[in-house]
Every structure is written in C-alpha cells, then in structure tokens.
Design a protein that fits this description.
Layout: H1 2-15, H2 18-46, H3 50-164, H4 170-175, H5 177-183, H6 194-212, E1 215-223, E2 229-237, E3 241-245, E4 252-258, E5 261-266, H7 271-281
Antiparallel strand pairs: 1-2, 2-3, 3-4, 4-5
Length: 302
C-alpha cells in the first residue's frame, strides 16, 4: 500500500494540478488507513501476547507518523507549485515589461541625443548672439562718440557763422534768412534735430562759399553820407570788396565789410569804370580789365 500511495503522488506531481493531487492524496490515505487497520486487527487476533500487541501498537504509531509526513509533504509540494506558478507569471510579466522598458530606453536615448544637438546649437547661437551684441555695443559707442564730436563741431561752426552774419551783403543775407531762422534757438523756437541742423549749416556754408568765389551783380538800396537812400547797381567781388553806381552813372563809390556791416564810400570818379563792369556782367559789352581802386579793409574783430 505505501508503494501504491507513492506511485499516485508521483503521477499527481507529474500532472502538477493541485486539485488532482488533493483527490489522489485523500483516496490514498483512506485506503492506507483501511488496510492498516485491517492488518492491526488480524495481527491482534493472531498474536494475543501483550508483547506482540505492543509491537503492533508501535507499528501503528509508525504508520500514523508516516501518514503525517505524507500530508506535510503534500502541503510543501502544493506551496512549491504555487511558487513555481508565481515565478512563471512574474517571468512572463517581466519579459513583457522588459520589452516595453527597452523601447522606452531607446526612445529616451534618441531624445537625449536630439536634446544634446539642440543644446549645442543653442550654445553656438548664444555665443554668436553675445558676439553680435558686443559688436553692436562697440558700434553704438563709436556712433555716440562720433555724434558727440559732430555736435561739438557743429556748435563751433554755427558760432562762426553767427559772427560772419554781419559781414554778409544784404542781398545774400536776405536769401539766406530762412536758414538763419531754422538755426535760431529760443523758448518759442526749439532746436531742430541734429540731422536738419547739419543740412541747414551745410546749405549756409555752401551759399556763402559760392558767393565768395564769384563776381556778382546785385541791385541794392542803401544810404551814403548825405543820408539819402538810393538804389544802386553793385558789383561784388566775393566778400572782399564791392563797387556801386546809379542808373545814370553819376554817383559811384566802393564798399568794404566791417564788423557792423558794409561801409559805403562815395567816389564818383570811378563811375565810368563801374558802369563798364555792369555792362560786362550784363553781356552788353566786350570784357576787358577794369581800373578800379582796391580798398584795404580794416581788420575785422569777430
């Protein structure tokens, strides 16, 4: 009977089914105890001697102990099967999760490479931006210095032009009056922008320069020593000297610039030469040299 029970347990272990093991074990234990009980009764009948009976009782105890061991072994096998099943399930779950983790790790590695490349590009762009910002700051500083230099130079030129203003002949001064008005600074006329100031100053200087390098004929009204205002034709040789004559050619003279404006001196004996010069400038006679006195202007104090 014990051999039969072991064979049943091995078959149940091969099947690895806890339900089948439970059924097989119960049947085997029932059969084993029935046969064991029958053997004990037969033994007592055949051997009524107490010693012999004690030996049978010892055998019975041994058999009971063996049955307890078999039951405990059955319990251990059940627990082992549960552990093996749990290990198998966990292994299957881990294989699935490992594949997912591998894919996730690969994606993270790609993202890391992409981020490293973008970080490198950002660092290069930042370095370029810092360099460009430095260059722009240098250019800004140079421009500010140039602007300051230009402003200071423009202030000096404008001051010189204001000193030169009384020396300008009245016809030229009248033509340049709009430019002078722009350069005036007072509460009612705020200073114009720097660019416009530069353009106005350049226009003034250019007009004065052209007048200085030219011989021009102007009509002008002024007063001589007799305090009588007359209109004269005036030949200007730049800003150095001028000669005037009336329409009839009877009154003539010359003029020189002073710090208070132009001073006119009457000299009727040069009327003929001055009139000839007027006709030459009007293209009414052939050009020739004129014999005119060269006045020496006094030193002008700005």
């Amino acid at each position: 009977p014990p051999c039969s029970m072991r064979i049943s347990l091995r078959e149940s272990l091969i099947l690895r089914d806890p339900h089948l093991i439970e059924i097989g074990s119960q049947k085997n234990l029932s059969n084993a105890f029935a046969k064991l009980y029958g053997l004990v009764i037969s033994f007592m009948r055949k051997f009524p001697n107490p010693i012999t009976l004690f030996s049978g009782f010892a055998f019975l105890c041994f058999a009971s102990h063996t049955a307890a061991e078999i039951k405990e072994t059955h319990k251990i096998i059940e627990e082992w099967i549960e552990v093996e099943t749990l290990i198998s399930e966990e292994a299957s779950t881990w294989a699935s999760e490992q594949a997912s983790l591998s894919d996730l790790l690969e994606a993270l590695e790609k993202d890391t490479l992409t981020l490293d490349e973008k970080l490198k590009i950002s660092e290069e762009e930042e370095s370029g931006a810092i360099k460009q910002r430095t260059e722009l700051n240098d250019r800004k500083e140079k421009a500010e210095k140039a602007m300051q230099t230009l402003f200071q130079g423009l202030e000096r030129i404008q001051s010189r032009l204001e000193d030169l203003h009384p020396l300008l002949p009245s016809p030229l001064a009248e033509r340049l009056s709009p430019f002078w008005e722009k350069l005036k600074t007072d509460p009612e006329n705020p200073r114009i922008p720097l660019r416009e100031r530069v353009e106005t100053t350049v226009s003034l200087m250019q007009s004065i320069h052209i007048f200085q390098r030219s011989v021009l004929l102007e009509r002008q009204e002024f007063t001589l020593n007799d305090e009588r205002s007359r209109e004269f034709q005036v030949i200007y040789f730049g800003l150095g000297a001028a000669y005037f004559v009336n329409e009839s050619g009877t009154v003539s003279g010359y003029g020189i610039p002073t710090s208070n404006g132009w001073a006119w001196t009457r000299m009727d004996e040069i009327a003929k030469e001055v009139m000839t010069g007027v006709q030459m400038l009007k293209n009414r006679t052939m050009p020739r040299f004129l014999q005119l006195p060269l006045p020496q202007p006094s030193k002008i104090q700005p």
